[in-house]
Amino acid sequence: MSDCLFCKIIEGEIPSTMVYRDEQTYAFRDINPGAPTHILIVPTKHIDSVNFMINDDEPLIGHLFTVAKQIAAQEGLAEKGYRLVVNTNAEAGQTVFHIHLHLLGGRQLLKMG
Ligand code: 5GP
Ligand code: ZN
User: Fold this and answer.
1) Which of 6, 8, 57, 89 would be 98's cystine partner, CB 3.0–4.6 Å?
2) What distance in angstroms lies between residue 49's CA and the mean position of ligand 2's atoms?
């Protein structure tokens, strides 16, 4: 997916502030943070959105949550609280079509909906 922004970030073609990396996952700080801590956790495999997940992706997507839990603890958010969000398509506000988990915290977050 040569025209995918997050694939380019994963490959290091576009700079980012890394928070975590393993073989399956890359996490980096959002360029336009919506909270004091705003980190994006992405699979290194390109998947456009939740709509394009296949059953074999379940362990990979589950792993994103395990990584999110570890990062939340590192950022000092585990007890205070944090929010994990996955936007899908236009009405949810998805702008980058490489599946990603937003980790938000560090302030009181408003109720959603
Ligand atoms: P979405 O709206 O698709 O759920 O989230 C995309 C996120 O990517 C947005 O929060 C946006 O600020 C972030 N973003 C867009 N371009 C870049 C970039 O070049 N670098 C980083 N670090 N984040 C980006
Ligand atoms: Zn991609």
Assistant:
1) 6
2) 10
